Predict the structure.
Amino acid sequence: MALLEVTGAEVRYGTVPALHDFTISVDKGEIVTLLGANGAGKTTTLRMISGLHHASRGTVRFDGADISRLAAHKTVELGISHVPEGRRIFPQMTVIENLEIGAYNNPHHQDAKIDHVFELFPIIKERRKQQGGNLSGGEQQMLAIGRALMAEPRLLLLDEPSMGLGPLFVQTIFEIIRTIRDQGVTVLLVEQNAAKALQLADRGYVLETGRIVLQDTAAVLLRDDRVRMAYLGEDIGS
Amino acid sequence: MHCPGFLANNNIWVSLVVGGLANGFLYALIALGYTLVYGVLKLINFAHSEVVMAGGFGGLFTMRALLGTSTPAGFWAIGFMLIGILAGALAGGATALVLERVAYRPLRKRNAPRLTYLISAIGASFFLYNIAGKEFGRYTEFIQAPAVVNGNAFTLCGVGVQSDWVLTMVVAVVLLVVLDAVVSRTKLGKGIRAVAQDAETASLMGVHIDRTIALTFVLGGLMGGVAGFLFGLQFGVIYTMGFVPGLKAFTAAVLGGIGNIRGAMIGGLLLGLFEAIPLRWMSAEWQDVVAFGVLVTLLLFRPTGILGERLGREA
């Protein structure tokens, strides 16, 4: 059974529809990626799943339960952690405090969980006493993912984790995403870097102006002409 | 009590500084209410004056009901004062909670512009103090305090230190320390700071934004209410009593750096001293002129206040 099922969802900002007749599903243990141009509705999709926005039509089901009307602070308790676009580290809290607040309603074994995050991201361990706002972009992204893991999610929503990072950090982040999945966390990934995302993912969906226009395994999408032209920047005319 | 030599012949300084600090602690308690709410909502709760007033009436009525015309002494007197403080705190906290629910939350749910909050705040303030004036009378009433709070606690360098000053300072120091610990160490405190820095992300962490904001108002209200009771103990209780200390405490919060908890404490104490010290050279009608002159000058040099904004998002 699918861990996450979005069926016929519609999200509106005022009168403008941002998602329309939107259906996706993510199985337990998968990495699924959402591809699409800016403004296609990728971030809106993640915000709808985590409860920051509510669908005006359709349903969002998580592990069989309807979560369409739940607020964000409730969905995290069910096991959905959302790493928002731009990382959104609390700038005036230390690295440790940022991690602690990730476990706000789930503070059991807090020290063990912090140790686990530091194992995944040794760099931020060295920065543990520093204010979040003083970290580099890559360190902040690692902290944001670590903070999300503190809630012990079953589903991790990642919004543009590689945005603005140098190639070395991008590589590290993608390796960590694979590790996290191997440790049993299902991942829904929104990513500008379509080539990297498809290499990592099991399956992918392509969004255009709020609708799913294409869906398949990552391997098939990597070979698809439309995907290669629009999102992988390849010239296939020659 | 031992008196350092340089003060022995300067009794006036001792009384000005001690009295100034006592008032300063009151301003600090009230200022925290402004600064906490500003931190989470970027909003000046101008109805906070009425939270102070509610604390005064809460303490007045409770003490009156408990004591009647009797004046207990010793151990009992302290117990009754603690009950008065508690009553002030509860009245202040409850008023702040109602304000959040009625005057601010509906606007927040509708994404109202900032100006609307300001109007709502002023409206709530007028409503509350006028209804208090109508219901409780428009004259000053004095809290029937146990005898131990009247007169002087002890003599310092030949100057009598009023018992109510001592009470004010002790209570304020305890509350300020407790509040600082709550905000920096407890789960609620972490939630408050998270909402102040980035409310939406805080909700992704599991922080219940509405509840956290309501509790922030309550925290500020508890302290404002205690300040109202302590203020009423010295100067009496009347429906307009919140206005001047409220405005001064707001100024103190800005002086310390609005949104900054330790800044509010420092700002309150400094304002208390600024008000008191000029009395060394000039008559009382100059007091506020000089205090606020100093304040404006300080802000010209440090526009974000002494410690700057901290709890809140970058403005």
Q: What stands out?
A: The domain at 5-301 of chain B is CATH 1.10.3470 (ABC transporter involved in vitamin B12 uptake, BtuC).
